[in-house]
Amino acid sequence: MKSQQITPMMVEMEQIKKWDGKYPDTYLGGGSNTLFQLK
What is d(CA 2, CA 26) in angstroms, rounded to the nearest whole number? Predict the structure, then answer.
């Protein structure tokens, strides 16, 4: 049985396949406590 290694490119391709074409409603800023509402 062949084992396949997960690469960063494979992860990115899966994210692209699942993307619905909408940008996120919120954005987490540079600090972990900073949250911006984009709407």
Answer: 41
Look up residue 6 and give its two tokens: 């997960």
Q: Tokens standing for 5?
A: 């290694």
* Distance of alpha carbon 15 from alpha carbon 9, whole angstroms: 10
Q: Which two tokens stand for residue 9?
A: 């490119």
pLDDT above 70: residue 26 = no
Token pair 């992860």: residue:
11
Beta strands per DSSP E along 1-39: 26-28, 35-37
Which residues sit opposite 35 in a β-bridge? 28
pTM above 0.70, yes or no: no
- 37 CB-near residues (< 8 Å, 6+ apart): 25, 26
